């Protein structure tokens, strides 16, 4: 099995450049170091050579910095002393932000290739900007609107009336219905947007009666929705994902959820119906929120947390049921202490009766 | 970004009506109030006007009732006194059930548009009722049978031999194989039904050997399967979803699972292979059942619960490992008390050594 | 609703045979019992008749063995005494492994039907082996390579440059990009492979800036990826799934994850970015690993566990936060004891103030 020597395998990625150190430093929004150097690409510290620019952000990998053969390295001022003599240090308080910009200099997002693939099925009254790209076998519904420079992937389905602003990307096999989408929105492959929410009334004899789902989905500007995630449309209100919010893969957003700006929802997290998140809420992987909650601005919810009550702004909660992070770890510590205390007596019993029964992992 | 003034944006929904108050009350299966009123649509309490009918079910939103400008409101007898004078009260013991019926009066499910889209790929020996609708780029396998008034969405794939009863809906990009489906079944976009279950035998040298998966999937009448959920076919027995059961989005159903009638499985829950659920089991979001369990009738399983043992009928369990709800919250309370008790001593230590280390949310 | 009398409904499965007992025993790699018998198919113990071979692996179902009407039964030596006189015992230390082989004798995986469906959209410079099968409406990108006997399902999308070895299967609606795939790899319907990982840098003003994702996905030989699972491509390194590893449905693999050989990842589990799993790690359903961890060889991670720290080889961990299985159940036991102890006092209080408030399941 072949492995890549460094990032950006030419089989899959188109690289620009080379670029001078001066251009790279400028893109990184830092002072240009007083050296002339041509940089041909990017690579991780461990495999970079003299023609590459690399970076250090997570200090867990600081040892790799001292050993790197990279020509240039983007680092925080605290780490400059560990940059080897063979490398130019590109110094910034925000090395990861600078890295995002430099990597995008070498590997910009490919532009739309204007035009509708002949295999696509496009309604006669859909309005598609001539600069947009419609991929093979895409289906565009009646009265749908697709703005400039949008890229619609293979097999993507845009239902009747769906609106996309400019510069959106819709991945392969994604489906959108009952949705109004802003600019620069990125919908990954396999995403489901706008289907009916999970709404029904149960009659006294146990029959579940569907509640018509009459709201929409609003994806504001710069939203990203990760692969195979699902965002249900509202029942009476709209489901709204605020500008700049990012959802990872396999995330579930229930009907009528209203999410503020700049939220981050990590993989496999789920938000039940009618819950409201203010701006910049962070939600860890596999965490869950029950319905009809209010989660304040800048709340941080730990991975696998189960939130069953409102959370005030600025709080960090973990656990299931969720509680403030400090209380949670205090409880963990208390319980471990108690269990250790109970061990010596138990160990004697086990000698006679055998140990605890383990559980299966699956 | 535009927002909808009220539910049922004409861009996406076709509304019938207007309807008289008498008709609305009749559909709601209540006594008609002695007033003449034309109702043009439905809306949430907060934005409804005199031409709308609205409803109150969740008492959390009771304040909105007192302030509503709706022309008519569906309410429980207990709430009649809070309906403002400007609104007609449509009174019923089952306001949410009545709402389901009234909303469907104004916004019925669109009927199938009979015919096969010319871009669909249909096997010559498939049997498709002439009243069924086959969407663009759908693929219908050999000997598949599709009953009257079914609606098959864009890109849906029905494998060889799959049978659908009448009035089923299959969403965009859903795939079904090895499946026998009843009437009025609703399969959402991106659903995977009938693929091989996760079955293998591990040889002594660690090689995983596939077990042929030789069962089917049976979806009984009125089943709903939410977006991007997966239902594996049985290995030797069938996987069965009982009549009227509803699965939310991103749910996993393992091979040989047998689910009774009227069960409700909330988003991201998972049921491992060969587990049996009796009728009307409720399973909260992100809950999990290990394999080969028996879960009795009307059991309620809390969100994020992890069930590793059989559950007797009528029980409510929560936690991981799951236990009766009352015991669970008693343990939560005991632990919080203990942790608080340990705090004062600890606080003194922290002054010298620093606080607990927090964890990251992702 | 019809039910199958036994496994392998002819509507969906093609059966070979009949086979003699001698052939069946040979395929099972056991001594042939001294009997002549023709076997026509396979069936579970409960419904098998004299013409079927069946098996017992999970002793939970041992009662069914005593009552079976099967003609032959594959069993462990310990269970031979419980095989009824009417059945021939096919005895092996590895009954489940033998079953895998015997079931595959009767129901082999259907071979590829060589050729490209006329509705597929294939780039002129894609290299497709003439023995490969390309299904209806599949899309094959520029410079993609597809090896001998691969089966590409309906609507599958292989992006530019993707490489598949020999004998791979790609299910309906799966999408692969930026991926190098070995031999005999099985990608289930709806799988997402190679899309951008969840990588962004947050500027001081809260704006999330995308980090270009410049790595690939490497699926080594004999890997399986379950329905609707997602495997993101690396950011700078590759994401690697080691030979023979099996992922169940709805699993999430973050960017730069490196998984060893023969790992088993059960449904709805998630692995965050840059975490490393050595060989033969087992991960239970709905378990989660945070990023940048190292998980040693043969580690077992329980269902719903939340792992936030490195795990040494050979360990079994459960709980959230995860800990060794023995400590976990000791804590469970201690807490239950304490809660019971606090009950009698509390019960008296409840008589005056009412019981605990329960939580909703959804």
Written account of the structure:
3 copies of one chain form a homotrimer. Chain A is α/β, with parallel strands linked by helices. Among the domains of chain A are: 19-106, MurE/MurF, N-terminal domain (Udp-n-acetylmuramoylalanyl-d-glutamate--2,6- Diaminopimelate Ligase, Chain: A, domain 1, 3-Layer(aba) Sandwich), CATH 3.40.1390; 174-336, Hexapeptide repeat proteins (UDP N-Acetylglucosamine Acyltransferase, domain 1, 3 Solenoid), CATH 2.160.10. Chain A is 15% helix and 25% strand. Chain A is built from 5 helices and 39 strands. A 12-stranded mixed sheet of chain A has the order 7-10-13-16-19-24-27-30-33-36-38-39. A 10-stranded parallel sheet of chain A has the order 8-11-14-17-20-25-28-31-34-37, with no helix packed on it. In chain A, strand 38 and strand 39 form a beta hairpin. The longest helix of chain A is centred in the last third of the chain and has 17 residues, at 325-341. The first copy, chain A, is flat. The model of chain A is unreliable at 1-5 and 349-362 (pLDDT under 50). Chains in contact: A-B, A-C, B-C. Chains A and B meet through strand 21, strand 22, strand 33, strand 36 and helix 4 of A and helix 3 and helix 4 of B.
Q: Would you identify the CATH architecture of the domain at 174-336 in chain A?
A: 3 Solenoid
Query: Multimeric state of these chains?
Result: homotrimer
The CATH class of the domain at 174-336 in chain A, by name, is: Mainly Beta
Tell me the helix content of chain A. Answer: 10-25%
Q: What profile does the largest beta sheet of chain A have?
A: 12 strands, mixed
Strand order of the largest sheet of chain A: 7-10-13-16-19-24-27-30-33-36-38-39
What Rg of chain A is obtained from the alpha carbons, in whole angstroms?
26 Å
Fourth CATH level, the homologous superfamily of the domain at 174-336 in chain A: Hexapeptide repeat proteins
- Overall geometric form of chain A: flat
State the low-pLDDT regions of chain A, or none: 1-5, 349-362
For the largest interface, the chains and their residue counts are:
B-C, 87 and 84 residues
The CATH topology label of the domain at 174-336 in chain A is: UDP N-Acetylglucosamine Acyltransferase, domain 1
End-to-end Cα distance of chain A, whole Å, is 31 Å
Compute the number of helices of chain A.
5
SSE-based structural type of chain A: alpha/beta
What is the number of beta strands of chain A? 39
